[in-house]
Amino acid sequence: MNRRIRSFHLTRPAASAAGLLLLSGLSNAVAQTGAATPRPPGTAHRAVMEAARSLGPVKMSTTNSGAPLLTGEMDGLMYGIFFSGCDARGENCEDMRLVSYWDEYPVQALNTWNRTKYVGRAYLDDDGTTLDLWVNLLGGLSTQQIVDVLEWWDVAVNDFSAYLKELK
Known about the structure:
Organism: Deinococcus soli (ex Cha et al. 2016)
Pfam families: YbjN
Order of helices and strands: EHHEEEEHEEH
Protein name: YbjN domain-containing protein
Largest sheet: 7 strands, antiparallel
Shape: globular
Keywords: Signal
Helix content: 25-40%
């Protein structure tokens, strides 16, 4: 069963690893030029919200840490979009994580999903099964790129729902 979105502070281990690689390159750039290269602008959560409305109703709120959070519904399935690395206005976000929560399913079934599907990572956490998709927003995304990500997310969530129904 798809459950409502819960609010939490987003951790970013993948982003941390990428950040270490970026910092090593950045330190070389600073050593060569004497100044840090400015970070490219990210994507605003409002642009994502506008595009998400094509999938169904969407609401904007914030997480406990004040980061933008979108919650929506598509084809009767709930999902959330957590943003991180945003400026004080919620603009220029570094990344977003699309999530959908489900009852607990066997880890073997989730491993099968992960081996056979390219979009949507499934795993167990303390509250059940999570399907997510992490998207890098540095450099910004065009409206068409945002729409493409959301369309892939729609396919992944619906396919995952059908996959879980087959398991019962």
